[in-house]
């Protein structure tokens, strides 16, 4: 009976030992098949990361270039806007004046061509016309329109008035009759540079008349500054 008990106990111990060995084999790292990355896999990952980094750098460079281009365009637009604002302010140019501010009478005749000074200023927007010299000075490059009218009483002297640009004769208006009142007029549109001058000149040996009714007048205004058009097409 004791032998049987000992045999049973031995079998039980052997069974437990075998179970522990099986359990240890099941959880040992050698029994688990886990793939490990090799050198080729690491190189592939590095190459992919390098490619992504290069793409990001290229994208950043493109964005920087685009930003610089947009900043340059914005600066140019601001410059054009500022220049156009200044042109608009300077572009408000117009004047009208009569030969006499008060009184009446003939002016002339003179022994030489004489600049007429129109002293009866009605308007002088931009102050481009000088009522002390009779000379209009263009403040900006642009197209300007001028008109002049005058009256003279018939007699031994006729009337002749010419429009002059920078000393160059442009247009003339004149009239002659033996008695009664005579009138004449003319006008012109000129392209002027900034600083160009325009004035009226009484021809040698001729006369011009004016009184409180202001028959003899000189007027001009800026149609448009040419710099504004150039900026719109640049």
TrEMBL record:
Coiled-coil stretches noted in the UniProt entry, renumbered to this chain: 60-87
Top-level taxon in the UniProt lineage: Eukaryota
Pfam families: C1q (PF00386)
GO cellular component: extracellular region
Residues annotated as domain C1q: 88-229
Compartment list: Secreted
Main localization, broad class: secreted
Key words, A-Z: Coiled coil, Secreted, Signal
InterPro entries in the record: C1q_dom, Cerebellin_Synaptic_Org, Tumour_necrosis_fac-like_dom
Gene3D superfamilies assigned to the protein according to its UniProt record, in alphabetical order: 2.60.120.40
PROSITE patterns reported in the protein's UniProt record: C1Q (PS50871)
SUPFAM superfamilies: TNF-like
Signal peptide range in chain numbering: 1-19
Name of the protein in question: C1q domain-containing protein
């Amino acid at each position: 009976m004791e032998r049987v008990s000992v045999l049973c106990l031995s079998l039980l111990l052997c069974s437990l030992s075998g179970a522990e060995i099986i359990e240890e084999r099941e959880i040992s790292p050698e029994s688990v098949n886990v793939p490990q990355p090799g050198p080729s896999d690491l190189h592939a990952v590095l190459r992919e990361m390098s490619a992504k980094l290069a793409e990001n750098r290229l994208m950043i460079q493109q964005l920087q270039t685009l930003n610089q281009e947009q900043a340059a365009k914005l600066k140019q637009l601001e410059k054009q806007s500022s220049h156009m604002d200044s042109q608009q302010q300077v572009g408000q140019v117009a004047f009208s004046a009569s030969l006499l501010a008060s009184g009446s009478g003939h002016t002339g005749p003179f022994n030489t061509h004489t600049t007429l000074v129109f002293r009866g200023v009605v308007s002088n927007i931009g102050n481009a016309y000088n009522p002390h010299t009779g000379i209009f000075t263009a403040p900006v490059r642009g197209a300007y329109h001028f008109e002049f009218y005058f009256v003279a009483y018939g007699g031994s002297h006729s009337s002749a008035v010419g429009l002059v640009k920078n000393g160059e004769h442009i247009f003339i208006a004149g009239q002659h009759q033996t008695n009664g009142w005579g009138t004449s007029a003319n006008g012109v549109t000129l392209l002027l540079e900034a600083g160009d001058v325009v004035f009226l000149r009484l021809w040698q040996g001729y006369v011009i008349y004016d009184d409180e009714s202001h028959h003899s007048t000189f007027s001009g205004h800026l149609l448009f500054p040419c710099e504004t058009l150039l900026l719109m097409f640049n």
